[in-house]
Amino acid sequence: MVVFGLLRQQQAEKERGVPRLVINYKPFNKVLKWIRYLIPIRQDLLKRITLAKVFSKFDMKSGFWQIQIHPADRYKTAFNVPFGQFQWNVMPLGLKNASSEFQKIMNDIFNQYQEFTIVYIDDVLGMFVGRKFSHPFKPHSYNYRDYTKAWYIIFWLQAYNHSWFVTFCKQAYKMHFPNWFQNWWMYFGLSEEIFPVKVQRSYHLFQQSIYSSPLSKTFRFALYFQIPWIFCWNFQLGPSGNFKALSNSLRIKWWKKFNYSHLEVNKIKDWFKANIHLQDMTRQEDEAFLLTKNAVMSTLAGASTQQEFNSVVNNVVVNLSDDNDDLPEDASPASVNDVDDLDYNPYEGLDINDPFLDKQPY
After folding, report:
1. Distance of CA 151 to CAs 143, 158, 183, Å?
2. From CA 62, how far away is CA 18, in angstroms rounded?
3. Could you tell me if 91 and 67 are in contact, meaning their C-beta atoms sit under 8 angstroms apart?
4. How far, in Å, CA of 249 to CA of 244, rounded?
């Protein structure tokens, strides 16, 4: 073959790998009981990966050495070397049942993941089918913990130089707000402390005029008028001492580009006229009572004689009696304007067992 040029003589030494301990277990394997557990056929495994597009592979490090040998059987693996006699505590290479035993253990572990994993002795292959987000697929369902975890990751674990722009959409007042939104608003919601002076005046008018509700008035103000705000946070070092704690400092800011011309006091008044069902009717009744009271006191003060004074008092009593007769028998001034009797309720269906607090945690 050398003459025909098929081979040539080579003087260089063959490159070898890392030295390995090799023990002849052929005599021992003859007396070992055969474990009939088949190794997977490679052709069958290849058929399972035809649709997969993304793969992830890892190899068990010193796989057979992960299996312990029973202490009573360790003497059977004893061997001699020039520097002493040893026995294996773990399963060595060369035993005829080593591959089958290891394959059985690996299958027991990965059977629950067999839809996307292939196991061949000490090799594990993860296979995944690519999916385009434009393709329709059944959405997952989420619970309270999923939402809180999402907000925690977004608002607490993002880089500190990021900020978030938050606002309500125009139709948000018709939506149902879940219970977890309460905690969200208390931590990340809007606060009147950041309002400009003109907006604060409008908010005070809104606060005095809006009807009572379990929801925060600041929340309803931002909801009805789509008021945006900026949320951001930074690192904060705790007080000096032996141990300094590093924490997050939350902060909300007013969006300076926001056009709040629709929040002028006059426009807030016009808005309440157009949404009379949202007004606090109790406040209007108090104002009407004060006007009537002042008028009666002025009339009584103008009486010059006892007879004239008694006449004024009788007229006032008669007028008040006529006003009460106009009310239904089963109604009172408080129940006539009760919120439950409104034809329009922007928070219909909202769970009020877990209400918002009117005070802000800032």
Report:
1. 13, 10, 10
2. 14
3. yes
4. 15
Count, in order, helices (H) and strands (E) of the chain.
11, 8
**Paired sense of beta strands 246-253 and 54-59, if any:** unpaired
Residue 139 predicted with pLDDT over 60? no
Burial letters 216-227, b for 16+ CB under 10 A, else e: bbbbbbbbbbeb
pTM of the model: 0.39
Decide if 236 contacts 248 (C-beta within 8 A). Answer: yes
Please indicate whether residue 336 or residue 313 has the higher confidence score (pLDDT): 313
Q: Which of 122, 71, 118, 58 is closest to 93 using CA atoms?
A: 122
Tell me the percentage of the chain whose pLDDT exceeds 90: 0
For residue 351 the two structure tokens come to 């769970």
Instruction: Give the tens place of pLDDT for each residue, 10-39.
Output: 555 555 666 666 777 788 878 777 777 777
Distance from C-alpha of 245 to C-alpha of 241, rounded to nearest angstrom: 10
Residue 131 to residue 113: CA distance in whole angstroms = 19
- Closest by CA position to 117, among listed 129, 109, 125: 125
CA–chain centroid gap for 35, Å, is: 50
Retrieve residue 209's tokens. Answer: 């005029």
* Residue 361 pLDDT > 50: no
- Residue 64 CA to residue 26 CA, distance in Å, equals 18
Does 3.30.470.10 match the CATH number of domain 26-128? no
- The mean pLDDT value for 328-332 works out to 40
Where b means 16+ CB within 10 Å and e means fewer, 179-205 reads ebbbeebeebbbebebbeeebeebbeb
Question: Could you tell me the pLDDT band of residue 344, with boundaries at 50, 70 and 90?
Answer: very low
